[in-house]
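Board notes, transcribed. Complex of a protein with guanosine-5'-triphosphate.
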Amino acid sequence: MPHPELRRLPLLLSLLSLLAVCLEMAFADDSRYLLGGTTALVAFSLILRRLQCPRSARLVSLPVLVLLALFVLSFLIPDSWIGYERWAELFDAWLGDGEFYALRPSLLISLTLILLVLPSLLFWRPHLIAPLLCMVAVLFSVTQLFEQLIFDLNEDSGLTPMSGLALALLLLAEAIDLHRQLGRYRRPIRLAKAGALLVVVITLALWHFQNGQNLYQVNHLALVTGDRLSELMGRMLAVQNDAMQRFSKGWQNEPGVPEENDWALRGQLLLQDFPDIAAIGWFDRERRLQRLVNRGSQQPAGMADNPAVKQALQQVFGYGQQGSAGVFDTAGEQRSIGLYFPVDTGDQRPSRGAVAFTLSLSRLFHQLEDRMTDTNDYLVTIHHDRQLLFRTGRDRRLSEDRYCNLITLGGNSFTLCTQPTMARLFAERTTLPALLLLTGLAFALMLYLVMYYHQRLRSKHSGVVNANRRLRNEVEARIALQTEVEWLARHDELTQLPNRRYFMEWTSERLDSRGGAVMLIDIDHFKTVNDQLGHARGDHYLKCVAEVARRPIEACGGLLARYGGEEFVACLPGVEEDEVVLCAERIRREVQLLELEQPHTGEWLTVSIGIDCAVGLFDIGRLIETADRALYRAKQAGRDRVMTR
Ligand SMILES: Nc1nc2c(ncn2[C@@H]2O[C@H](COP(=O)(O)OP(=O)(O)OP(=O)(O)O)[C@@H](O)[C@H]2O)c(=O)[nH]1
């Protein structure tokens, strides 16, 4: 029997759990309200149930169940049916600054809370199903803990140490309560629970595998998106580079400094085609800017007389290679890059001049933004020398995974990184793992009920079988008793011979025209045996004589019975007198040969035998009478002899 103190312990644990979750909500940030609030409501409904207020407990449990069911549905319903925004709208009041997908309790925790609150709503024998629900809830929360601590699933379950403690206290309280209540149901429940839990464990393992696969695929998709953007950016830069190179080569065959008008005309055409190019300049071999065509009114920094420009021109004129003045800020155009292309004359002589381009990176990157279809799902950043050049897309609730690629332009390297939002990652997830988990859970529940009722029926059936066996044993004992009583009614217990009643029945059935004989056997001086050797020895003598007399009589087809006291009677139907006399003589001799002590004579025990025979139909009573008279005569004549009528 459980200790009586255990009655109050679950209530105390539930109160502690409520306290823990309230403390967390009071001191932690808003984002914990979703899980904290739900756990608090579950704890409250369990407290009401333990305070013996089932109706109030049900009133609180029902809305909690609806809320938790909504969480579970958000895992089940594909995003194409109800999207992220819809769910977020639904839970906006709870979320504060948070995002629904990141802050809702995980599937396992939502199910754990449902399993805890469900027994309060079951009208029909909740104690039968509650042990399984409690065990599955424990399994789910332990799995969640492992998922969170061991596997990095890029998913915030919302389970903090404080809310975890609150949940553990609720589960412990439930387990103690169930331990108290189960009583006689414990055995069938234990077996059914073992079977159902096996199914749940297998389902959890499958779910874990599927979920991991799914998350891997989702993350892979984010990686692919990063690669796609980098490729797009690389292509845009390559087109730009090609155009600038072609423009530079276009001046190869023209001597000296380009004509003013020609430069302006061709330069304007290029500016029109490529809006990212802010300015185009011509530097002669003395590294002086001779021609310039630009969008703004001011000369960009890429064309100015500064060390970076000098270094780039040195690259062009000194080594005949493309140079770069690096990234700089230009007024109005923000970030720009200066690129310098040598203009060769075709022979081996050094460059005749250099065409300088000022490329607006801001405009270039905005073109990338225009071509991005899903700016809301990612944060895209471009860095150069650890300097942020460009940033677009969402910057709230981003996944921790970032995918970066390196892109080069005129010897300058840019790092393009994409970071998907949590909403995007969750939208890409399939609902298959959640469906699998719920199907497995439903199957386990059904198996539990089937096994439980099977066990109950089996125990009832074995009860009936036992009762039947007891009844059969009793009937058999009574039949044996009856047979014994019947046997005793017709036999003598001491000598095991038929008694007088059976003898009379037997003979009356066998009286026919064949005739027959009656033999009366009496032990001589039997009283002296009893008196001097004791009744026990007398009984033994009676048994010995009965045994010796029985065999020859039965060999003649007759029946020997105990007639009374130390006297035996035999009927031998259809046997003639000579044969009967021979039989009697044989009995007499064999009794002597037993060598039983006879204290009266000092010799061996003897018997006297009287015989009467009849030819044809006879009267047994009269035959016995005459045999008795013959016996009397045998006694009178000195005993130990056979006398016929
Ligand atoms: N031990 C024992 N003695 C019995 C039983 N039934 C009868 N007796 C005894 O048998 C004796 C019969 O004695 P009696 O009728 O006087 O005859 P007897 O002593 O045999 O003498 P005779 O018949 O004249 O030779 C009595 O003492 C009875 O008590 C029994 O079942 N067991």
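The chain has a mean pLDDT of 86. The radius of gyration is 58 Å.
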